[in-house]
Design a protein that fits this description.
single chain, alpha+beta, 3 domains, 4-stranded antiparallel beta sheet, 7 strands
Length: 293
């Protein structure tokens, strides 16, 4: 159940901030706390009902029936709703504390921005990030037209928002900044990931499309329909490629060209080179005679 947004950093959250954004329900309290809360509310009611019924002149069986029915109705209609409402903060205290710790925990982000290839450019960028108490866990530099593309994995305070990170990257001299929430898996460097995927392709060259898609965090574009392309006046594989660099085509001898798409995140020359090398490895292995033949 996702918690509601809008918590102020450093402030003790109210129970309403734990309500689900979809259904509006509170998280389930622990059984121990729920039992204690129900007993605390039901005990006075039970005592008053017993005192009122026992003092009457009703037969013993009638007293038992009246006590049973009255206590059951009061528990269902009075005790449980009252316990949930009156002791709500105490019931959900463990979840509130856990949510508070999560809100203050560092968040991981993946960021990209283009900076000028000049001395001091990276220092200016890191200073801008440091003002937000953001720590750079890893950095990869990709040469591009007009400068270098710096790719970071950042550890930022939990309350930091995407807009604040984007503004810090711009203040540090970066252009075309982009940020995405990420996980600890982003800490695996590109070289290690490429070697792991190369081993996967060595075991089965047919894994090439999936391996490259995983390496580049991209999706495989569907193969164009030859008949449709012909009727449109273009040959298969001749479709226009966007100029923003978000489409990458890798030629292969047995698959034909494989197209990968990553909207809003252009492929860098280094990423293109890694993908082409994996394709060359798959092609060599696919045409190598099997051992023992």
């Amino acid at each position: 159940m996702p918690p509601a947004r809008g918590k102020t950093p450093g402030k003790t959250p109210s129970p309403s901030e734990l309500s689900c954004e979809v259904c509006g329900q509170m998280p389930e309290p622990t059984k121990t706390r729920l039992t204690v809360a129900n007993v605390a509310v039901m005990l006075p009611i039970e005592l008053m009902v017993h005192a009122a019924v026992v003092s009457t002149a009703l037969p013993y069986v009638a007293k038992v029936l009246v006590l049973t029915l009255t206590a059951t109705i009061l528990v269902i209609w009075v005790a449980e709703p009252s316990a949930t409402r009156i002791l709500r903060t105490w019931l959900h205290a463990p979840a509130l504390r856990h949510r508070s710790r999560l809100g203050q925990a560092p968040a991981l982000w993946r960021a990209r921005t283009v900076v000028k290839d000049l001395p001091g450019s990276l220092q200016k960028l890191t200073h801008a990030l440091a003002r937000l108490d953001t720590n750079i866990l890893s950095i990869h530099v990709h040469p591009v037209n007009g400068g270098v593309l710096d790719e970071f994995v950042l550890s930022a305070p939990g309350g930091l928002r995407e807009a604040e990170l984007l503004q810090a990257l711009r203040d540090g001299g970066g252009s075309e900044p982009q940020v995405w929430p990420t996980t600890a898996l982003a800490m695996a460097d590109g070289q290690t990931g490429a070697l792991s995927l190369a081993a996967r392709i060595a075991a089965n060259p047919e894994e090439l499309p999936m391996a490259v898609a995983e390496l580049l965090h991209a999706r495989i574009a569907p193969v164009p329909d030859t008949d449709t392309d012909a009727s449109a006046g273009t040959g298969a594989g001749q479709a226009a490629v966007p100029a923003d660099g978000s489409v990458l085509r890798i030629p292969t001898a047995w698959h034909g060209p494989i197209t990968f798409v990553r909207p809003g995140e252009p492929f860098t020359p280094a990423e293109s080179a890694r993908a082409h090398r994996l394709a060359e490895l798959a092609e060599i292995l696919a045409h190598r005679p099997a051992a023992g033949r």
